Amino acid sequence: MTATIKISAKRNGNVVDVKCLLLHPMETGSRINPDNGNTVPAHHITQLIFTNNGKQIMVANFSTAVSKNPFFGFSFEGAKAGDTLKATWVDNLGQTDEIETQLM
Amino acid sequence: MQITKRMIIKSGLMLLTLASLPRILLAAAWPQVSFSQSGASEALTALLGTDVTIPSDRIDLKIPSIAENGAVVPVSINTTLEDVESISIVVKNNPRPMAATFEIPPGTLPKITTRIKMGETSDVMAVIKTGKGIYSASGEVKVTIGGCGG
């Protein structure tokens, strides 16, 4: 079970529209914690990578300027029903999560 | 660092070391140098080898003219340009202007949508690298409350 990725893949003719919502604080490393006055360390997703049946179809490189709980949408062609779409993110602390879904 | 109960409960994350990351993640290098530049020109040069772009009306950049919350500014980019290799978002007045960059392999449409942080009112530029050159389109987003954590 994946706690940090929600994904939807809707077919539109030959094109599949993918929408993805990630749960992540995306801390820039500049924010001051109001409770203790300390700077909150940078903690942000660096890459979000999509594959379809193992073939890479999108690499999203994020800086700290991508909003907290990132939303990302893109579209690709040539997918067939039953294909396996996979989304994987990795962050600057080496944490990672992934999700797979079968295309309709 | 203390492991708190909250961290354990919160984690739906798999903690992996860099050495054990799936190979696909090691294939595409994160553009660290570009992301750490404080000038738009330097950020573009670090990423694409140049800061010179050709303005193109074949790029559809959708951004709000006024963003009340600079922490969440929606950006959508689409283009009729062909042979697109990458799409990048540059926010001129951000402390680090290169906000995100997307690698578009053949078969993937040259179209993305996401949400970014803006520290203040700024030009937002979509930069699209194709096999034929580097093109751009930009517009201004007025920000009333900055979104970099202030």
Task: Flag low-confidence runs of chain B.
Answer: 16-20, 23-27
Looking at the overall shape, the CATH architecture of the domain at 50-150 in chain B is: Sandwich
Helix share bin of chain A: under 10%
User: What fold name stands as the CATH topology of chain A?
Assistant: Immunoglobulin-like
> What gap, in angstroms, lies between the N and C termini of chain B?
26 Å
SS field, number of helical segments of chain B: 4
CATH topology of the domain at 50-150 in chain B: Immunoglobulin-like
Order of helices and strands of chain B: HEHHHEEEEEEEEE
Strand content of chain B: 35-45%
Regions with little confidence, pLDDT below 50 for 5+ residues of chain A:
none
Number of strands of chain A: 7
Outline of chain A = elongated
Task: Give keywords.
heterodimer; A: about 100 residues; Immunoglobulin-like; 3-stranded antiparallel beta sheet; 7 strands; about 55% strand; elongated; B: alpha+beta; 4 helices; globular
Verbal overview:
The complex is a heterodimer of chains A (104) and B (150). Chain A has strands at residues 5-12, 15-22, 45-52, 55-62, 71-77, 84-91, 95-102. Chain A is mainly beta and 104 residues long. Chain A has a single domain (5-102), classed as Immunoglobulins (Immunoglobulin-like). In chain A, strand 1 (5-12) and strand 2 (15-22) form a beta hairpin. Chain A starts with a strand and ends with a strand. The model of chain A has no long low-confidence stretch (mean pLDDT 95). Chain B is an alpha+beta fold and 150 residues long. Chain B has a domain at 50-150: Immunoglobulin-like. In chain B, the strands form two sheets. In chain B, strands 2, 4, 6, 7, 9 and 10 form a six-stranded mixed sheet that branches. In chain B, strands 3-5-8 form a three-stranded antiparallel sheet, with no helix packed on it. In chain B, a hairpin with a 3-residue loop joins strand 9 (122-130) and strand 10. The radius of gyration of chain B is 17 Å and the shape is globular. The two termini of chain B are 26 Å apart. The A-B interface holds A 1-4, 15, 28, 30-32, 46-47, 49, 51, 56-68, 70-78, 88, 90, 94-98 and B 12-18, 21-22, 24-25, 27-28, 30-31, 35, 71-73, 91, 94-96, 98-105, 107-109, 111-118, 147-149. Strand 7 (95-102) of chain A pairs antiparallel with strand 1 of chain B.
